[in-house]
Amino acid sequence: MKYGSLDTKYGKCARLLPVLLPLFLLCASTGSAASLCVDGNTLAQYISAGSCFVNAGLGVQVLFTFDGAFTYQTDGTSTLTPSNITVTKTTGPATVQAGLLFSSSTFAAPTNGSFADLNLSFGVSVLTQPPGFTYSLHSAHIGTTSVLGSNPGSFTVGVATDTLHSSYNLQVFNPPVAGDISDQDFLPQSSLRPDIDLFLFQPGTQMTSWEESFDLSNAPEPASMVLIPGGLILLGLLRRKHFAKPVLPMLAMLAVFAAKSHASAVCTNLNAINGAPVAPGTTSLGLDKYISYSNANGGCMLGNALFDFNTFSASGVGSPVATAATTQLSFVYTPGPVFNTITIAYVPVATSIGTASQTFSFQYTISDPLSITNMTGSTTATTNITRTATISPGAIPSPSTTLNPIVTINDPPSTLLSVNESITLTSASGFKHISGLTETFIEAVPEPVTTFLIGSSLLGLGFLSKRHRLA
After folding, report:
1. Residue 230 Cα distances to 19, 226, 457, angstroms
2. Using alpha carbons only, what angle is made at residue 361 by residues 360 and 364, rounded to the nearest 5 degrees?
3. How far apart are CA 90 and CA 39, in angstroms?
4. Which residue from 457, 462, 459, 465 is spatially nearest to 21, judged by alpha carbons?
5. What are 307-323's pLDDT values in tens digits?
6. In the predicted model, is pLDDT for residue 29 greater than 60?
7. Which pLDDT score, from 0 to 100, does residue 469 have?
8. For a FRET experiment, which of 119, 340, 398, 418 has its CA 20 to 30 Å from that of 245?
9. Could you give the angle at which helices 448-470 and 241-261 cross, rounded to 10 degrees?
């Protein structure tokens, strides 16, 4: 029976449903209640608000999102919190550009220590743009303002990377060095995940402000060119009754399975991992806590995946040398239209100077009843750093020896994967520093909310058809 044969009361609704449903999903996914970024507010207020936008010019608005990803470490007794940092929006000098300027009067290497390190992450995406235009982010810039201490060898370094696409890697020193990269172009992207690492060395060294900004141009993001025709094909298939019928039971089953899998997000339950309540606003714990929890409980869950952290080891000379306790670890689970992503972010603060070197490594296993298809990674570090990522049994390449690995995983669902990471600050002369690395695993499972909405709509459509037949 065709949709057109339904009675007038339901026929028009049934014919329009396959058209209106994708539009509803699109609107629901792109809506935003963000307000204009307020100059002079503290970073703590920005984190509390969650997001705000900057008018970049020519009718383009850029959205900045904050989820509390902030880490401060030192070998002294100084403290720095988001409440000690003020934020100001920036625009220009490019025609369409937006950024944020962070300022603090208390970010300094302590007088009773040797270093201070700050790590800050946030999201950047295109919020609104003029009709008929497709603006994308295509260039990043970083700048710092600092004062050096009186001790010999005092310096500051600012490193900025994109942990979402590995689009850029910036670094600026004071005193300047030949390898400084303060500006970098990259392939157009609709969103980024900047990670800023700031390191101060020697007492009295201070950084009063730092800024990261982004240029935009009217160029489509590559992924959008694939998603748009893919969506149109799906729309055409949904309009065919013989396709919707067999798909409905599958979608309903996946929706139930996905809802059950979301019940155990233990890796993000910091109170459980810590074994005691953590301070409000805490977003990460030391890797040693995850190792202890895994040893006692067999690992923690995120999405459908089980993570079992086993060991951490370090050797060499540096100030500081990375340890399991000082390596902060956080998880982010992101549902998507076709795949889910599970990102593990590590903040290991390690520095070696001159010809000194150090190596640290850690190992864990991951298993998932669904397919893990690949792992991508990023590294926030200066030059003369190496990273070796090994995933077994069936990953390609394995090992991967780049700072931003892209590894394809060919193993069937439920395979126990062993992940080994080894990072070396080499003996090459100069300053070597690392304070961030990520691993993002792709889980091949439909995003549960969209699956539920589509399944419910198809179920309603089938109900209308059945009701007409019974009548």
Report:
1. 15, 6, 20
2. 155
3. 9
4. 457
5. 999 999 999 998 889 99
6. no
7. 56
8. 340
9. 140
- Whether the Cβ atoms of residue 108 and residue 198 lie closer than 8 Å to each other: no
Question: What pLDDT digit, counting tens, does each position of 353-386 carry?
Answer: 889 999 999 999 999 988 899 999 988 888 899 9
Task: State residue 151 phi and psi, 5-degree precision.
Answer: -70, 145
Least confident of 127-131, 140-144, 336-340, 409-413: 336-340
Which secondary structure element, helix H or strand E, spans residue 258, and what is its range? helix 241-261
Give me 453's structure tokens: 């909405």
Tell which wins on pLDDT, 178 or 156: 156
274 φ/ψ angles, rounded to the nearest 5 degrees: -75, -25
Stretch (H or E) spanning 9: helix 8-30
Task: Flag whether 381 is in a domain.
Answer: yes
Same domain, 215 and 322: no
Give the type of residue at 125: S
Task: Identify the DSSP state of 322.
Answer: P
Mean pLDDT check: name the lowest of 15-24, 272-281, 422-431, 459-468: 15-24
The span from the CA of 414 to the CA of 241, in Å, is: 34
Please name which of 127, 197, 114, 110 lies closest in space to residue 162, comparing C-alpha atoms.
197
pLDDT at 195 over 80: yes
Domain shared by 203 and 340, yes or no: no
**Strand, coil or helix: what is 465?**
helix
d(CA 418, CA 26): 38
| Co-location of 270 and 351 in the same domain | yes
Domain CATH code at residue 322 = 2.60.120
The number of beta carbons lying within 10 Å of the beta carbon of residue 61 is 19
Residue 2 is assigned to a structural domain of this protein? no
- Asked if residues 223 and 189 have their Cβ atoms less than 8 Å apart, the reply is no
- For 212-252, the pLDDT digits (tens) are 999 999 864 444 444 445 555 555 555 555 544 554 444 44
Residues 53 and 202 in one domain: yes
Q: Kindly report, residue by residue over 228-237, the tens digit of the pLDDT.
A: 455 555 555 5
The structure tokens 């296993």 sit at 365
Give residue for tokens 């409440």.
Answer: 83
Q: Does 148 reside within a domain?
A: yes
Strands of 148-289 (E only): list them: 155-162, 169-174, 183-189, 191-192, 194-201, 206-218, 285-286
